[in-house]
Amino acid sequence: MLIPRPLVTRSEKVMSGAVVFAGTRVPVQTLIDYVEEGGRLDDFLEDFPTVSREHAVAVLELMKESVMLHASPA
Questions:
Q1: DSSP state at residue 27
Q2: Do 33 and 48 meet the contact criterion of CB atoms below 8 Å apart?
Q3: Which residues pair with 10 in a beta bridge?
Q4: Which of 33, 37, 35, 31 is nearest to 51 (CA)?
C-alpha cells in the first residue's frame, strides 16, 4: 500500500480542523491516545481500518523525528 504524502493533514472541513491521517477522517490524536493508554498498534489498526500499518508507522516515525529535533542539550 502506498503511504500518502503528506502523511497528515488539517482542514476545518474535516473533523473540525483536527490533524488527521491524510486521506482519512482518523485523528492522529487517536493513535496517541491508544499509545498513552497502553494499547497496541494492532488494536488501533483493527479499530481504524482506513489507516494502513505503513501509514501509522510513518506518522510515528515523524513524531519521533520531531522529538529528536526539539531535544535540548543537557
A1: B
A2: no
A3: 19
A4: 31
The pLDDT value recorded for residue 2 is 78
Rounded CA separation 70/6 (Å): 21
CATH topology of domain 8-69: Arc Repressor Mutant, subunit A (1.10.10)
Which value, to the nearest 10 degrees, does the dihedral of the CA atoms of residues 13, 63, 57, 38 take?
A: -100
The ranges assigned to domains in the chain are 8-69
Cβ–Cβ < 8 Å for 10, 19: yes
pTM: 0.89
What is the mean pLDDT, run by run of 10 residues, along the chain of 74 residues?
Answer: 89 96 97 97 97 97 95 88
